[in-house]
Design a protein that fits this description.
about 240 residues; globular; mainly alpha; about 75% helix; about 0% strand; 9 helices
């Protein structure tokens, strides 16, 4: 973890504190529409009572609880006259964990959607998707700590690192999925099969992007929860702790 009042931690908090007053409380409720739709889509294919659907439902319920809590806390935080105004650190940390869980949840739903479509096709699609997904998760895990500049001089290096290799990771994911879908459709020549390939390809690609980027949000959420708001961040933004 980063040291208290370090450059990296201070910059993270400054960005979060600048965004906090601009964030609409309604965002946390309306943002539940996407995971609900994708959970229903996967549950229809897998079966409502299937283990993967029930696991997805548990994630959805947890998301809803955190979303409602984030909504209420943000409303109270913006009520400057409230005597029981929640701490800024609590509000920001809860919001960050909501973002992280949202990305992970969407990645899971899209993965299930892709896997269920792959089951209906002949070939090693199911295993291939799981392997690529695991490799994407590892890539995201390795990239997360390196996505944050540790000092002023490191900002340019972080940008160069992201520009230098992150597009390649995402490009490789997209290329592999696109080539696989194209070859699958071309070889199968079956009527209606292309729709399964389309669902599998789009679901796989979106889930890979989200799991790769999701670890960065998870890492940042852990940093927010690890300690108090750095003094320089409070001074720079003028926000009360």
């Amino acid at each position: 973890m980063l040291e208290k009042d370090s450059f990296a931690l201070t910059q993270l908090w400054i960005n979060a504190l600048i965004d906090l007053p601009k964030r609409r409380a309604s965002f946390f409720l309306t943002s539940l529409i996407a995971p609900l739709v994708f959970w229903l889509s996967g549950a229809v294919l897998a079966g409502i009572g299937a283990a993967v659907s029930l696991a997805g439902l548990a994630i959805l319920i947890l998301l809803a609880i955190i979303a409602v809590s984030s909504y209420l806390l943000l409303i109270r935080w913006k009520s400057r006259g409230s005597s029981e105004r929640p701490s800024t650190r609590l509000v920001v940390t809860l919001h960050q964990f909501y973002y992280a869980l949202m990305i992970l949840g969407l990645s899971y739903y899209l993965l299930i959607l892709a896997l269920q479509a792959s089951i209906r096709l002949e070939g090693p699609w199911f295993q291939a998707i799981l392997i690529i997904y695991a490799l994407s998760a590892v890539a995201g895990l390795l990239w997360a700590p390196r996505s944050i500049p540790r000092e002023t001089e490191d900002e340019a290096a972080v940008i160069a690192r992201d520009v230098g290799w992150l597009p390649w990771v995402l490009g490789v994911q997209g290329a592999i999925v696109s080539i696989g879908v194209f070859l699958g459709v071309w070889i199968s020549h079956g009527q209606g099969v292309w729709t399964h390939f389309l669902i599998m390809g789009m679901g796989t690609l979106a889930s890979l992007f989200m799991i790769t980027m999701g670890f960065s949000i998870i890492y940042r959420s852990m940093l927010f929860a690890a300690g108090p708001i750095p003094g320089p961040a409070l001074i720079a933004t003028g926000v009360k702790p």
